[in-house]
Design a protein that fits this description.
By secondary structure, this protein is mostly helical. It has one domain. The radius of gyration is 14 Å and the shape is globular. The mean pLDDT is about 85.
Amino acid sequence: MERFNLTTRMTLRRFTRLTNGHSKKTRNHDAMLGLYFAWYNWCRKHSTLKTTPAVKAGLASEVWTLEQLLTADC
């Protein structure tokens, strides 16, 4: 969990700076976090897994592209 928190903080600028890059509305902040976590788990290949966590868990058959993620019917 500590590694995940560090990765999230270092990847998202809004968690490293308080002046530029923060969301003024909670709704925008929540939407950005949801998009980031979906990309992290469905699109980004992890070096230790050699694939995405979704593929490793059997939730997807292949690594998703960003286009697939944004057009997914959820």
